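Q: Sequence in, structure out?
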Amino acid sequence: MTSRKTALAGAALGLACAFGTAQAGDEQAAMVGSMAADQDMTATIVFKLRHQKQLERYIQRTISPGPHYHDFLSVAEFARHYAPPRGQLKQVARYLNGSGLRIDKLFGDNLAMTVSGPSAAFERAFSVQMHDYRKIGHNRHMRRAFHRPDHAPRMPKLLRSNGVLTVVGLSNQYQYQSLHTARPATSVEADLTARSPSTAVATHDPGNFTVGDVAEIYDVNPLYGTGINGNGQTVGIATYADFLPTDVETYWNTVGLATKPDRITQIHVDGGGEYGAEAGTGETNLDVEQAGGLAPFADIVVYDAPNSDAGGIHMFYRVVSDNRVDTLSYSWGLPEIFYTPELNGGVDYRDTLRALNQAFMEAAAQGISLYAASGDSGAYDTDRQLPAPDYSKTLSVDSPASSPYMTAAGGTTRPLQLTGSCPDGDSATYDIEVSEPRAWAYDYLTDFYAHCYGLDPVAAGIFAGGAGGGVSVFWPRPAYQQGVAGMQNSQPGQILIDRTATPAEDILQLKSGFAGRNLPDISMNADPYSGYIVYSTVDGGLISGYGGTSFVAPQLNGITALLAQSAGSRLGFVNPQLYRLQARNGYGSGAPLNDITHGDNWFWSAAEGYEPATGLGTPDVAAWADALEQATAGDRDRGPHGHAGKSWYGSDGQSRGRGHS
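A: Exactly. Output:
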């Protein structure tokens, strides 16, 4: 691969990030007063899964060759086996109606219903007081005005006994963040402007990479050579911003990519997301450009919803209730710890994480593969909302990438060369070279800023830009990660501290030594310096130097559509398959995964095998397709569940029939 030299200058690197949310505690908001009793609002009632352990076993059977291999459930079958019975739904509906609330929609899987009505009715139904707040801090991603209850909703006994898990949407305080980023700003603009790429699909030009470069780097082209192009598959995008399909078509045309015409369907959930640069339209554009570009003849369904907890719940439950897509990516998120009561005025929102995970389990049972960006703040996921030194550096991870039923997409840096300019009056330059793939973190710029400007990474503005990864303090380690060398527990001494307060205030102490879900699972190039071009009208047209793990999630989305076409079936839940393939095939020539052993994400270092900087490594897609075919054939020869009759999750391997047993 060829690389170019890019000038770096400017004492402070301000990371251009579409990323942020409400600050910790209440120091960034002031209560205005009680919410008007007649103000209309909407929320979602989420029901608990029935027979969750049996569902976990059935999901594993769909990805272990045997009687139920790829025997994915329909929505009706899922609802019949794992959702509350209709009688319970009717009792809940009667209670809500009696409180003055309207039932707007019951999702086809019977796991969620949207309700609306005046705030006073919600107060009666859930024994809360609704209050209005206004923003007083400078965080531009916090809503200027929002509402939330004075405490967690109290679930009436009738609702609890009829399977209600939680109510989502009583607060609209949070907005999710899109997980893409630009290169750090410099004063040498001429060397950083995007050039129009050649008509060749691949540019071989770090910072101006296209989907054609992705196909070359990760060995996708052999699949194209055999006619695998996504035909017959449907990729899904879940997002909070509307977009113009003509933008993504312009991107594909600009890079000279032949694609299936008229293949994009837009579904606006709850009226859809907003359109504009601040709303995240550029994120939606790049998601569709990358997923649809790597699977150029796949159909595309784009779900967009209002940017809120309720919007996210509605969107994911709509995705699984529709069951239209074969694979789906999501490039937004929030730090996992932002759902704790300490960061929500005492209200505990962690049941929202459980409600999302139920939708992801349904997707797995129906064969839909899911990918989420792992974040762009390295090992310190809160840093882009609560930046150092104002807040302490706290090891944290992003949600929903941390969900055990989501494949977390991490990031690397590709080989590149940069030239840094020292301050005015000093003619010296400083060469920077990344000679081999490494975990993505801007710490490879540390020596340049120390030498030329005397700045540490925080003062320079490069901390903590990098690929998200670490250990969940909410989700325990899933079975497919148990016994895998390189897994980590949560670190001691992790306290989120607000240093802007006098005296400094401890906001939240994280669990120490918790054997949590590790992420990411798999990585690809995400560093903006070795990143990509994007076409987005609201962001200025053709722009270069973009990156973030939000590129990796849709790239894996498109790649999975190719793998599914090659396999002749949806792949289903990818994670156990990835860990099993790595265990069987190792690394090296012909292996489906490439090990990344250099770099770090500001805390976790890349090393042989799994680590929370890059996960299992990067894919070799052609080898991945071959390994899936070989593993399937081998397991058929070894018995109904492979591995001497034991499932990958370690259950007893007995066949209990389709769905619930």
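The domain at 29-48+84-173 is CATH 3.30.70 (Alpha-Beta Plaits).
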